[in-house]
Amino acid sequence: MERQSGIGVEERSMMNASLASIIINNYNYAGFLPETIDSALNQTYLYKEVIVVDDGSTDGSRQVITEFGDRIIPVFKENGGQTSALNVAFRISRGQFVHFVDADDVLLPTAVERAIEVCRDPDVAKVHWPLKEIDAGSCETGKVWCEDLPEGDLREAVLNDGPDSVHHPPTTGNAFTRWFLENVFPLPEVEKKLQLGDTSADMILSGLAPLYGRVGRIPEPQGYYRLHGGNGYSSLNFEDRLKRDLLTHRHLCALVAQHCRRMGLSVDEQRWEKNSWVVRLCRAARDIAALVPPGLAFILVDEDHWKTTTFLAGRKRFPFLESDGRYWGKPSDDGTAIREIERLRAAGASFMVFAWSAFWWLDYYSGMHQYLRSQSRCTHEDDCLVVFDLRKKGVSR
User: Fold this and answer.
1) 43-63 burial code (b ≥16 CB/10 A, e <16)
2) Are residues 172 and 70 in the same domain?
């Protein structure tokens, strides 16, 4: 079925010379906002507008925004959540390309120019790129988010496995074509109904985009993602984040299914639910809570995909490999893996848990796997988890 773009191919082919809108959404980030606005104004692509929408901040954000004068388009509104802020800003924007930027993040100078190069393809609905991580003082941590991003025609992946099956970066790592956004805006404002601070608008837009067009990719980072301890999402503990993710996932699936029906596309929402990353994670967390008693520690092999430094209350988690409590990467060989297992066992680890995303370790590190089977007891094995009790030796489940 031909994609529903909302405008003609000839009109879209002219977009390479069109206006770009950079929309910065802000709530109480006055300390970071000047750097974010400067990064938008200092783009190498000159034909742009910078819209800063403040969602009822109670700090000094209004003064910061006002000081930029007529170099930006300010929007001040009552607090209503991120989705309402983006709806208001998009309604007044004029660009054929739209970048949504979180007010604590930063764009690299070439971000808009590079995005527009990719979007010259009239079939592209959005383009994304990795983000370098910075701290509260704008110092690079050395970490890069979302280095391995998909590209191309991803519609079938969404239809088959659900909207969260397509990996995407946080808000600042995406740019969208206006013809796509006009098919999906205004976004449903359900934050209060779901009792959420926001509904992850980046996730919603990235889940919908493959239905309407191709997804482009820029391999080099074009922005900075800031972790500063006050991030609304990253500062949540594991259980609260999981609860929030499940609510937003189900909201996303319902919205994407609605668009599919509108486009005449059939989907299996039950299959989406079964295969969903967050649903499997909820199931895995429930099983770990049942298998690892409170007060005990366990090793988690997830390649840091679960993005958690805390876990279920009363249980200590060791990443693997581990250094100073943080994930340190994959072991170089079986011997390294075995030595680290014994080191962490001596440090108090009673269980070793392999998440489904790291099941390949059990084949690749076959010596480690054999060692675990002989030196501990496998107490659980399904499509989500493989769990070894390190306290019991040489007995298989």
Assistant:
1) bebeebbbbbbbbbbeeebbe
2) yes
Same structural domain, 301 and 195 = no
User: Does residue 30 belong to any structural domain of this protein?
Assistant: yes
Secondary structure class of 397 (helix, strand, coil)? coil
Query: 175, 50, 25, 176: which is closest to 105 by C-alpha?
Result: 25
Kindly list the distances between the CA atom of residue 160 and the CA atoms of 28, 95, 156, in Å, as whole numbers in the listed order: 39, 33, 6
Q: What is the pTM of this model?
A: 0.81
What per-residue confidence (pLDDT) applies to 305? 82
- In 3D space, the residue among 149, 135, 88, 107 whose CA is nearest the CA of residue 20 turns out to be 107
Q: How many domains does the chain have?
A: 2
Q: How many CB atoms within 10 Å of residue 18?
A: 16
Residues 175 and 308 in one domain: no
The per-residue b/e assignment along 306-340, b for 16 or more CB within 10 angstroms, e otherwise, is bebeebbeebbbbbbbbeeeebeeebeebeebbeb
Helix/strand/coil for 261: helix
* Per-residue model confidence as pLDDT tens digits over 172-194: 999 999 999 999 999 988 766 66
**177/272 Cα distance (integer angstroms):** 27
Residues in the chain: 397
Sheet of 73-77: strands edge to edge? 73-77, 48-55, 20-26, 97-102, 174-177, 124-128, 214-217
Is the residue at 252 inside a domain? no
Residues 356, 280 contacting (CB under 8 angstroms):
yes
